[in-house]
Structure formats: C-alpha cells, structure tokens
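User: Can you help me understand a structure? I only have the sequence.
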Amino acid sequence: MDNSNTGASIESRKDYDKTPQGQYQYYSEELKASKFMLQKWHKQADKIVNRYIGKRSANNSQPQSYTFDLNLFHSNVVTLGSMLYGSTPKIDVSRRYSDPDDDVGRVAATMMERLLNLDVEENGEEMDNVLRSTLFDRLLSGLGVGRVRYELETEMLENEEGKLEKKMVSEKAPIDYIYWGDVLWSWSRSFSEVRWIAFRNWLTKDEVEARWGKHAADNIPLRKQKMSSGDESDRDPNMDGPWMKAEVWEIWDKTARKVCYMAFGYDKLLEAKDDPLKLTNFFPVAPFFMANPTTSLYAPTPDFTLAQDLYNEIDKLQERISIITEAVKVVGVYDSAASEVGTMFKQGMDNDLIPVSNWALFSEKGGLKGTIEWVPIAEVVNALDKLISLRDQNIGLLQQITGMSDIMRGSLDNQYEGVGQSQMKAKFGSVRVQALQDQFAFFTSDLMQIKAEIISRHFDPKSIVKMSNMEFSPDKELLAPAVELIKDIDKAKLRVSIRPESVAMVDYAQLKQERTDFINSLAVFLQAATPMLDKAPETAPFLMQLLQWGLAGFKGAQEIEGVIDKAIQATEQAAKQTDKEDPALAAAEKQMQMEMQMQQQKEQAELAKIQAKAQADMGIREADLKADIETAFQQAAAKKVEIEADMHATLAEIQAKMEADIAVEKVQASANIAQTQAGAEAEIGKAVATTEIEIQKEAVKSGLKINEIGVSSAAKIREAKAKPVTKPKGDKDVT
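Assistant: Let's start by predicting it. Here is the structure, written out as tokens:
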C-alpha cells in the first residue's frame, strides 16, 4: 500500500458516489492523508519503544563490544507508571446535585455503581491490562486509546407456546485496548473537531470469508502482521507474525453517523451500517490519552522527544566511560633479557623469592625500576573521573526536566532533613505528576461514562436489576422508577455523575474514616436533637428531613438513606396517628404536660436555692481562704526575719574567723621572714669572712713573692758590681 500523500484534496463529499466504490475512494483519500500526517510520529514512536526495551537500532554501526546501555528512559517510565497506576479503579456513582429528596436518583446511582464495579471485578484482569497498556502507550509512544463495545449473546429457545424465538442469554459492555499504531483520525486541532476515527483489525482469510463472503476473502491482499507500526527500513522481519492476514479498517464516521469497513486493495467498501450504539458523542472511544497536544494539530508528541538530547548525551558519555574503563589495566613492558621479571608475575607466590641469574647487570639497570615500564593510567583515570562527573550532572539535569528528581522519589537531600520536610518538597515537586494522574483519571472516567451510556441505552431492564443485585435492598420498592430513570439517558445525565474513585491501591483506612465521620456526625445530630424532641415530639419529621439533607452530602451515605427514608415515614405516620387520638387523651396529655411544667418549676426553684447556698458557702470559703493566706504571709515574713538574723550571725562568725586566721598567717609570715633574713645575713657574713681570709692569703703570697724577687735582684746587682771591667785595646783609662 502506498503510504505517501498523493497530493489529492477533497472539496466535497458529493464528488464521491454513494456507491461502495465511490465511498471506498473517499475513505482511501482520508486514510492516506492521515497516514501521511502521522508517519513521522509512527517512526519516532517505534524507535522510542525499542529504546525502552534496550534494543539497538539495526543501523547502528558501533561494534557490539563497545556498547553500554544505561537505559535511564526505561527506569523513568517504570517509576512514573508505578506512581500513576496501582490497581483497577473503584467506580463511584452519585447524584449530580445530592438532592436529599431525590430517592429515585439515589437508587439509580447505586444500581449503576454496582453494575460498573461488578464488571470491573469480574473482568479485573482484562480491565487491568487495558488501563496498564494505555498508560504505558501514553508514556512511550505518546498515545493511549481504549474503546467500549456492546456484546449481546442470544439463543433460539422455545416460548410458552412452543415456538422458537430469539432470547437474550447475556449482554455486556467490555472495554478493549487499542494499539497506538492501529488507530487513525482525521486532521483536526482538537478531539472535538475529529470527524472520523479508524481502527485497524487484522483478520484471517477465514474470518473475512465468514463475515463478508468468499469474493472479499479471495481479493483482499493478505500480509504478515508486523510488530512495528510501519517503519520498513529498521524492522526485523523475523519478528513478524506467521499468519497472512487482511488489514481491515473500521471507520467510525461522525459526520455521516455510520460505521464503514474497508481494506486497501479491495476497490469497494466491505460494509456500511448506521450508528450501532447511538451514543451522544458517537465515538466508542474516550478522548485520547495524548502526550503534549497542541492547538496547532491534534497529534501526540512523546515525552521522550522533549529530553532525547540529554538521553543521547548520557548514553554517549556512558559509552565512552565503558571504553575508557576497559583501558584502565595494570599492564606494562619489561626487558626481555630479564626473564625473571615475567616469572615473578606469573608464578610468584606470597613470601616467595625469585632468583636473578645476573644480579650485577640487573643492579646496574636500576633493578625493577629500570627493567619494568608501566602504562601511565593516572591520566586515563583522571579522564574517567571527569566523564563520570559530567554524566552525573546530565542525569541530574534530566531528572529535573522529566520530573523524576530525587524529591519526587522521596529521598532526602542530606542526613539532617526530616521525613516531613521531604514529603512537603515531594508534594510541591510532583505537580507535573499530579497533573498526569488527573489526566489518567479523566481518561478512565470517560471510558466508564461511555460504558454507563451503553448500559442505559442497550441493556435490558431485567438485566440491570439482576446484575445490580438490588432485589433485597431496603429500596427495592424504588427499583422500577430507578431503572426507568437509567433507561432515560437524558434525565439520568442531569442527575447522575460518574468518576473513578482511585486508580491507586484501595485505601481501606480512608473507607473506615469516611464511615466513622458519618457515624460521628449522626451521633452529634441526635444528641443535639433529643432535647427538642422531648419538648416538641411533633418536630420529629422535620428533624429527620434535616438529618437526611445533611447526610446526603456524605460520601457513601446513599445506601443508608433508604433506612432514613423509612424512619421519616414512620415519624410522619406517628404524628398523624397522634392527631387522630381522642380529646380526653389529649386533655390528659395536656394535664400531664402542665404537671411536668410545675414539677420542672419546683425543680428549678430548688436548684436556685441550692445555687444560692452554694454561693454563700463559697463566700465563706473565700473569706477563710483570705485569712489563711494572710496568716501564711505573716508566718513567712517572721520566718524571713529569723533566717536573715541567722544569716547575719553566721556571716559575722565567718568574718571573725577569717580575720583571726589572717592575723595568725601574718605573725607566721613575719617569723618566717625574720628567720630567712637572719639565715641570709649569716650566709653573707660567712662569705665575707671567707673572702677576707682569701684576700689575706693572696696578700701574704704576693709579699713573699715580692721579697723573693727583691732578694734575687740585689744578689744580681752585687754580683755585677764585684765582677772586674775589661778595657778595650787603645782606650785610655778614664776616671
């Protein structure tokens, strides 16, 4: 089939004949234009799904040994999906305006709620698959689609007259999951403008023949069903299905309000029938659960594309980290002449010595340092650290952009942050997730609304009563008008609203709290209303209606409102019965009331006396208390004077003792000083005497030395004088 846009434009549907051939040409143009419009998104979505499961593209030229898939996208999608969906929803149906007198609307809402929840419970696995599949389609491809069908099973049975007639065996309105690649729609800017929606059905040749005849089965092209939506260049043919099937498009045309079936290659419509469901909005699907739609074109933009640059950058960094990690090895080279070095790393054990044959040469080369040269891995490790830091920064940025930050995951920023603070940050940090939860809840609610409308329009009243199991409820007399209201869809829409209670885990504590609040409110009201009932029993119907009005606003109170309705009827009948009683009884009752009033007045007088006496006693007690307080004050003042006198005496005694101790210390200190001074003077005198003796000794020695020198000098002088003088030759004797 040609998926390209042929450039044809449609001016009017009147240009196409009303025949099956003419309508085939019209719908062919519409479907081809839609395929061309969504072609880019289909290819993109296929790649995103492959990215989610970690499947490498067939065109990836990178060697497989160097690939490393961190796949943060898978982790984020799984985490987000777990936050958005926990279990099948509990459907809540209630009166739109909670009018307390609208008992028929209340019973109708209860019946519809039971019908929807019963279907969810009986088909829980199918419903879970539909919701989970549409959610993950939304998170991956950007589009989640579900549709509602009506199934009626009949059987030919004999009636009372013995004739065969068609009778209903069962009827149901299942919800189907639609694969995102099997749906097309007309060009529009919003869902409200969509003119038609088409669903692709893959049928075997036998199924085509059973429905549309042998001619159609023999002439419709058959092909294998592919896993992808249509990207022929990048798909694995081994993943195609083994069956040859016909590609039949089921087109719901809202403009013509018809459902048509066609197959490309078969030159006429297979079937065209009028609106089978008669739904208000015609389409059997809820507004698409679509990612990032705009007002320019009603088409999805997957979340992945908004952050794909960061995902690709993180994968690139992780791949480089993986390659560099392989290079971080303890390897090197060594001198081949020193074979013992290789033996040391291959055979060396703990505490082992390896002999070296030529130790002198080994030592000259510098030993091991001169023989071995290791690969420098410090630079490699430094680059690896930088890459890891950059990758972690990009991961943090990705978490902020996608909303998957640590705040939303409930982790603490630091050890001093409390759990309450973290929960508050998570509350404000999960705004985008909360918005997505609301969208998912609206999508589920719309599906249930369509299901409820199908039940209203097509289900048999007996089936509604039987499946709701309301025959034994307190409101069984209201079943007929309630079913009539359900069947009248225009009135029912004004008085019944449907919403999913929760798509998370069932909160039994919340259910218990709701019922506890209901009972507490009821108890408070009854406690406040009892005095009024005692004084004026005729106000009971009014109080019961007031109670019904107040409880109508409570969640889950509609089941008990039937009991309150009966209580109101009983009180009204009792009031009417009282009015019909004879005058004598009324007079007796009046006399009794007067006596009760007199007795009440007496009791009030006695109560006044008791109060007066109590007040007088209280005055006496207050005077006694004042006297006791005054006495206590006086005793406290005397005690204070006594304590102050004792304190002054104690202080004087302590001061005298301190002064005596100081005097003793002074005398002892003076004696010690005198003793020390005398000792010092004695030592000084002794030193002076010793010094004088030494001086005298030195003086004696000096005198002796001087005498000795003088004696020696005199002897030398005498000796010089006694020695004769020798005259030189030629000299005259001179006197």
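Now, to help you interpret it: The two ends are 173 Å apart (CA to CA). The first strand starts at residue 91 and ends at 95. Let me know which part you'd like to focus on.
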